[in-house]
Amino acid sequence: MSMLNPYDHNNHSSVQIKKNETGKKVSYERYQTPPGEEFSNRKLKWAMWYEKRRLAMYKITLVGLILTSVALWAYSFTVWINYLAFGIEEDGRLARDLTASVDYTRLHARFGAKPPEIINTQILPGGSNKFDLLAEIANPNPRFLVFFSYHFIVEGSRTPSKLAVVLPGETKIIAWLGLDAGPSSEPTVVLENVSWKRISAHKIKDVELWQKYRLDFTLSDFAFRRSSPDAAHADMLTFKLTNNSPFGFAQSEFYLALYQDQSLVGIKQIQFDTFLSQETKAVDLRNFAPNLTVTNVAPIPLINVYDSAVYL
User: Where is the segment annotated Disordered (predicted)?
Assistant: First the structure.
């Protein structure tokens, strides 16, 4: 008895496709999954769909990879050609630009701080055989404090150095008081060690208004009384000085500019240990400069309102 070989193509009777009673082929789609069987009819459908299209999917994937590789190689080739044609020259130009020095003087003129300006210098009588040297210094920077040391040179001699600060946009008097000899020529003021400090716009938007709010001082009830002929020219100056700001100050100093009408004729310096908010100080001064007539007085605060140490 010979055995039946199902893989023998010559054995035509080995496999027969059954047909139903109507003569049609039996479809696997009508297969009903027995209870408890893991391989369901749905899985069978997906398996048949994948098996029919597996070769086509492989070819599509292979063609896609080949096209992607060709595109990448073409792009790389184009980039290298562009670099050889133009990139080498651009790299050389970039290297030269990086090693070139930058002219910061133009940038400084626009964004940096400008130096303080000396408006004028004067010699004024300061008392009996005494003279005062002074200069007006303007800070043209609206957002920079300017710090410096200064001294005067007069007839070849120089005074000791003093420190000063001028607020943004401010014009301030700097002085050396009580010079013994009476010079015959105008003094020269020398500013040294000049430095600046920027005021941040994030902290203070309106610098001018911020400063005026803190340096709100008014002078009232001024009186000038000339001394009698036998009083050694001890003229009397009295007035009241009021701190209108909501801030109290410690060790507040002022220059007092003495005017005869519109002309500056003298300068005095006063200092208070404390100056409370809304406080009024009664000031009584004596002037020993001969033949001096004073019609009004202007207070010049020497207070750096940006220094927290000046506040009480």
Answer: 1-21
The pTM of the full predicted model, rounded to 2 decimals, is 0.63
CATH fold group of domain 215-312: Immunoglobulin-like (2.60.40)
Annotation: CATH topology of 113-205: Immunoglobulin-like (2.60.40)
| Amino acid letter, residue 139 | N
Q: In sequence order, what are the beta bridge partners of 147?
A: 165, 195
Instruction: Give the tokens for residue 86.
Output: 């133009």
In the block, tokens 């701190």 appear at 243
Q: Domain ranges for the chain, please list them.
A: 31-81, 113-205, 215-312
CA pair distance 44, 28, nearest whole angstrom? 8
Q: What is the pLDDT of residues 71-110, one digit of tens each?
A: 999 999 998 888 888 888 888 888 877 776 665 556 555 5
Q: What does the alpha-carbon distance between residue 142 and residue 204 come to, in Å, rounded to a whole number?
A: 12
Segment 138-187, tens digit of pLDDT:
999 999 999 999 999 988 889 999 999 999 999 999 999 988 876 667 88
Q: Which residues contact 119 (CB under 8 A, 6 or more apart)?
A: 135, 136, 137, 138, 171
